[in-house]
Amino acid sequence: MKQIMTIFAYTFKDGVRKKSFWISSVIIAVLILALCLVPRILSAFQSEDADSQEAAAPEVQADAETTGTCYFLDESGIFAENIAMFQALAPELKFEVLSPEGGDKTQQMEQIREDIRENENNAAVIIENTGDTPSVKVINATFMQRGMDLDAALEVCSSIWQTKLLADEGLSPDAIAKVQTALTGTEETVGTMDLTGYILGLVLTFVMFFAVYYYGYGVAMSVASEKTSRVMETLIISAKPSRILIGKCLAMGAVGLVQIAGLMVVALAGYTFLVPEGAQIAGLELSFSNLSPETVAVLLLYFILGYAFYAVLNSVCGAAVSKVEDLNSAMMPVSVVALVGFYLGYFTSVAGGGSNLLAKLALYLPVSSPFSVPFRLLTGDIEYSDLGISMGILLISIVIVSLISAKIYSASVMHYGKMLKWKEIAGMK
């Protein structure tokens, strides 16, 4: 135990003293605080928009005759009778009803188009007789400068046309009004997933991957650096290789927990002081009801377990090289496994892809469960039985991988020279 603590203390101090530790902590803390400011900024913009709309409402009515002109040509004569409905769509325009018998239609249309080209604020609504139902055409200056919206005009025209057809069938105005009454409805969800849980689960899925990968890489880098500087020869004298492996893995994990704990404090402070009460995103209120102390404890446990699984694999990669420059090549197989595990967990939980069998595999496989469980846990999409099975398999896998890795590490840690191949590593005892 004393040997493990000696290695632990040495590696931990080295980890927290590195510039990368502090720089990454500051950058992530700033990003967290910036995210906490987003709801406040959105709320400020929404309130400003509401105030400007209230202040601008009288001005629109006052300037309605001066902003622009909308030429209205109705060959059927039905829609011109309801010009007030179109005026409500664009109160800033003055509607000028044109006579369909005003001369050559082609020349009349060309004059309208030329006028709109010269004055981008102008527009036109042309309703033509084309068989059983009329056709609606809206003319605007450009796709960016649109005085009249086609969809809004079609909605009004459809309402007027339906009213006429129903009246022709003998329905009374009251009956027509009832037929055209828009239905109202509400949406209810019975699951435990909410917007906050989804966003937080998505963020934690990525955070879990980068944390596990980053600190696992830290273990490999620590071993490779000490082999390059010959410090490992001193450590071997004072401690057994297996004790070195355990001490280094525990130390880098502790460095990760310290950094995560500090960032959690920053996140809590940012949420408390920066996020306004009752803040909403896309009309849904932010709520952290799913983030209970038990959930936080399970999330931290999965970080520890996921880190432990990949850390022991990465330690072997560090022991297989004699130069730091060869580390990335040695870590390639482990990196591929980590990426496969991450994408399996991501697409079966966050993206909702794959079959139920694939989703179960993502929960149970030790390479993917650290990236799949956090999202499902925060969204309430996991059973306690599945959580227990997933955790049990992950623990057993860590023990098996640790025993194998300890033997390989002990045999390869003092190897110098050409980088060991995975076939050679697998044959070591």
From TrEMBL:
Q: Which GO terms describe its molecular function?
A: ABC-type transporter activity
Record-annotated ABC-2 type transporter transmembrane domain positions: 19-406
Q: How does it sit in the membrane?
A: Multi-pass membrane protein
On whether RNA-binding is a keyword of this UniProt record, the answer is no
Residue intervals passing through the bilayer: 21-42, 198-224, 245-275, 295-313, 334-367, 387-409
What's one GO-annotated cellular component?
membrane
Q: Which domain of life is it from?
A: Bacteria
- Could you list this entry's UniProt keywords, alphabetically sorted: Membrane, Transmembrane, Transmembrane helix
Q: Does the keyword NAD apply?
A: no
Xref: Pfam families: ABC2_membrane_3
InterPro entries according to UniProt: ABC2_TM
Task: State the compartments where it is located.
Answer: Membrane
The protein's name: ABC transporter permease
Species for this entry: Candidatus Blautia merdavium
List the lineage, top down.
Bacteria, Bacillati, Bacillota, Clostridia, Lachnospirales
